[in-house]
Amino acid sequence: MTRPEILTRRRRPLVAMAVAVAFILLAAACGSDSSSSSTATTKATVPSGPGVAIGAQDFPESLVLSEVYNQAFATAGYSSGVQEVGGFRDLLYGAFGTGDVNFALEYAGSMLNYLAKPEKPAGSDVNANVSQATVLLTSKKIVVAKPSSAVNTNAFVMTKARSEELGITTLSDLAAKGASLKLGAPSDCETNPFCLPGLKSVYGVDLSANLVALDDGRADALVGNQFDVAVLFSTDPPLAGNDFVVLTDDKKLLPADNIVPVMAQALVDAYGQPFVDLVNKVSAALTTATVTEMNKAYVVDKEDASTVASNFLKANGLA
Amino acid sequence: MSVAVLAVELGGSRGLISRTAAHLQLTLLVMAIAVLIAIPLAVVVSHSRRSGAVASGLVTAGRAVPTYAVIALLFPVAILWGLGLGFWPSVVALVLLAIPPLYTNTATGIRGVEPSLVESARGMGMTSRGVLRSVELPVALPLILAGIRTATVQVMATATLASVFGYQALGSYLTEGLAQRDDAKLLTGTLAVGLLWLVAEVILGLLQRRLTPWAAERPRRWRRRSSGPRAHSSPSGIPGAPSLSRP
Amino acid sequence: MKVVLGNDANSLIWWNWVGRNTDVIVERTVQHLQLTLLTMAIGIVIASALTAIALRFRVVTTPILWGTGLLYTVPSIALFGFLVPRLGLGYRTALVALVGYTLVVLVRNMVAGLEGVSPLVRESATAMGMRSAPRFWKVDLPLALPTVMAGIRIATVGTVGLVTISALVGEGGYGALINQGLARNNFATPIVVGASLSILMALVLDLMLWGLQQVLTPWNRTIRERA
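YS: structure for the whole thing
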């Protein structure tokens, strides 16, 4: 009985070749160390210190804003790059802890509610939000910069057709006429104080019976009439060709979710006040309108993030 | 992570029972469709040289695109066609996910059937169909079942994505737990999927033992013998068979 | 998604975008390939060890199969939520998760393959005087090889699709391209580029592994033709 032989003389070179190819591929793969970053060039006008690693979460606004600060830093001479990270605060702050990230764009209200869990102290006063968050971040050795005036918070949206049909243009209207309407919202709506509970306490309407939880695709679903009102975000670019109406928050339910940079203490220690001033300067140029415009350019007009960022910086005298 | 109290709603439209049932429904539908597509395809292809490469390529291609992306791309289509939210896109995406393990293992299993077995069956006058039924499938069965079990764990675990797109199932515990920063819900979702899969695995294991009883006679242990023939004095695992070793 | 053949933002492939972002595409390719190959290399080693243990100590066979399966059911966000504060971001962290997810496929096929070797064949080899170790390499493994290779192929293609979860730690490969396109109102070009290259990579790897399998198991090449 013959025994199966893998390495007969004829087959040996083929096997050797296969193994060699595998090794070459592995070596090539191991040889390069990739991290998703777009590094910019350095000029020697700043003190030496750690490179800035901006944690960009995987939604368009975060990528665009990160690129804005990235270019601002690079122009000023700092070594700076964008580090992508998943869109969850656990991961972001975990990365701060290990030093993979030392700068990020945050949202004053939601950040505070995350840090203060299980309490939810965020309100519509941005300075109160920021100062409370600052206290909670000291143990993580993270410092909060000045908030910008740009706000990205929940937006209750209806299609123009439906809004006109029902005569609803404000949240008070919704409370008065829309108690039986279907609401399409992200999964946190039932416990988010700025969603269902807030509608109940501030406007007196309870939409929980007709809640549709949908984390992705809400704008599409709204257009497709899967529900009457959708919870989107105030800096979402309106879908090209769609008519949306954002219901006015006349009783001031929604929080001050201003865009605010947070940075590692180590960065401030290394680079001092000039760095902080630069950060604040960029933040001051951000407004809800300009951020929405940048989002539109990136998401709808499909311009590259770097182009959108540099256009913004140039337009505001920061380039 | 602090240990959170698992106070979970059991009944109701967003309760554990309904979500588990929904998750199971999605999994079963996907597995049924995938089995009906992949296994016959593999059987047909194993008998012909040419289509093997094409079929294998298609199967591979379907899995290489991330499941989330497939659902996201099909979602607007489903809305357009009035098919509701995330259920049908998820079915398509998960079927694409389940096909490779089923197809590859079935094809490998059938190809691995010894030609001599097939020859003798043909020699006895069996038709191709008979050969398939009485020789090839039984021999390939352990592998086919392995493919089914692999596909099941992958589908069950990935079906949680459907909840991102609006399908109320076990994945909803994950999306809610993440969005509401509720560790108890996250834990519930993870444990529920894990337990559901364990139950499925046990059932499939019993099924496998039922369908392939001859495989139960496994060699008892892989012993490392330090000495020569004298050490092989006892049969390993074949009850009643005479010793096959030299005295 | 308006799909138009042309060279602008709405066409299936906007070549200008590709030209402007070639470095990103190359970077994603390296990322994706590196993660896939390293995951498979490490995964095969660990799975082999687990299989050896599972077959040596029958008591642990089922726990090992259950354990690897349960590992697969852990959601990636939960897994990374645990890993990131300890290991940070980057491809090392991604590897831990990807290797963990690939074990269930590899172990199951390795165990099935080695279990499927007929005890009679083993006995005859032993009867001919073969000791355990040479018998393993010359009899068991070659006979189990088709099944083991099938498992490696399934796992490899699966890993190519799974690499996208590493976007959570910034190593998303082609999946990150696709996700970026999805987030930008279904921007076709990065989606098409990311998906096509993913499929291409999976096909190439699958083909190479198939070739390797043919080389290693020549006796299995007989194709039975239908009468």
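YS: worth flagging: The interface with chain B takes residues 88, 113-114, 117-118, 186-188, 190-192, 212-217, 220-221, 223-224, 226 of chain A (CB under 8 Å).
IM: good catch. Also Residues 168 and 174 of chain A are 6 Å apart (CA to CA).
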